[in-house]
Design a protein that fits this description.
Radius of gyration: 19 Å
Number of helices: 13
Shape: globular
Largest sheet: none
Distance between the termini: 27 Å
Structural class: mainly alpha
Order of helices and strands: HHHHHHHHHHHHH
Strand content: under 5%
Length: about 280
């Protein structure tokens, strides 16, 4: 694809998914607007909206690389429009569901109160949803769209389950700390959310070779995510903090429970960096 044409398609993809998301959101939630949240005095809602925008940009980039062929501008734009519309609807659904499940259903209240920790969680979940959609819902045919939707649903289930299992590594009450505004707990949760979304997205993006082989391949790719456990407990929780390693909890949890953002940011960087590196490993 010519560079200029590619830039035009990329701009069109970004404008399409962001514009459609904004339009749908305007009808669903008339009390809030993106511009108001980003320019207002509530930083928690601003963080939530930034996470959504990052997820949408990830989806737009995936549409450009995965749903265009460069042989026909009209064909490329048509596929971007179709796959993008489906992607936005799935993104909206995943974000809506996640925001109502986080913190035992109290996330919206915490966002309205300006809880930065809650804003980090909401933004990370929206970004994670966008990453998952961007890996699953790509292709150039209607059949690939159908399988992409199926694997997105499978990935959504896996993302929720694996994140819940991963958070069992923590010994502090995560929901309580975030509810109380512990930014370190919010950073920790955000890092794990994005990292697990990247792992699940990698599992969902493989080429379809029949349902059974593809599902088995999906499961094997999820097992690669087990490396996040020793990364958190060994690298971030012990080696880089100069502490003794622990199977669960440890110095990292103690630091986060005492509102120390630095160790939490270290954990998030190690987890997300590891998940990004997994993408360089061929399945």
């Amino acid at each position: 694809m010519d560079t200029l044409v590619g830039l035009l398609v990329a701009a069109a993809a970004a404008a399409w998914v962001i514009g459609l998301w904004w339009l749908v959101g305007r009808f669903i939630d008339s009390a809030h607007r993106v511009s108001q949240d980003l320019s207002g005095k509530n930083p928690a809602r601003a963080l939530a909206q930034v996470g959504s925008l990052l997820g949408l940009f990830a989806m737009a980039a995936s549409l450009v690389t995965g749903s265009t062929t460069g042989t026909s501008l009209v064909g490329d734009l048509s596929r971007v429009a179709l796959f993008g519309a489906v992607a936005v609807r799935l993104f909206d659904g995943a974000t809506w569901l996640g925001w109502r499940m986080l913190l035992g259903g109290s996330l919206q209240r915490e966002l309205e109160e300006g809880n930065l920790a809650a804003g980090l969680c909401a933004g990370a979940h929206a970004l994670g949803a966008g990453l998952l959609v961007s890996h699953a819902v790509v292709g150039t045919t209607l059949s690939s769209l159908g399988t992409g939707i199926a694997f997105f649903a499978l990935g959504q289930f896996a993302w929720t389950g694996l994140l819940a299992l991963f958070r069992l590594l923590t010994t502090y009450d995560e929901a309580q700390h975030i509810d109380l505004g512990n930014v370190a707990a919010g950073v920790s949760y955000a890092g794990a959310t994005i990292a697990v979304a990247l792992v699940v997205g990698r599992a969902a993006e493989a080429e379809f070779h029949g349902w059974l082989p593809s599902i088995l391949g999906f499961g094997r790719a999820l097992l690669d995510g087990m490396v996040l456990w020793p990364i958190r407990q060994g690298l971030a929780g012990a080696a880089l903090l100069g502490a003794r390693p622990a199977v669960r909890g440890g110095a990292l949890d103690t630091a986060i429970a005492h509102h120390r953002v630095g160790p939490a940011a270290l954990e998030a960087a190690c987890l997300i960096g590891t998940a990004v590196l997994l993408h360089a490993v061929r399945r």
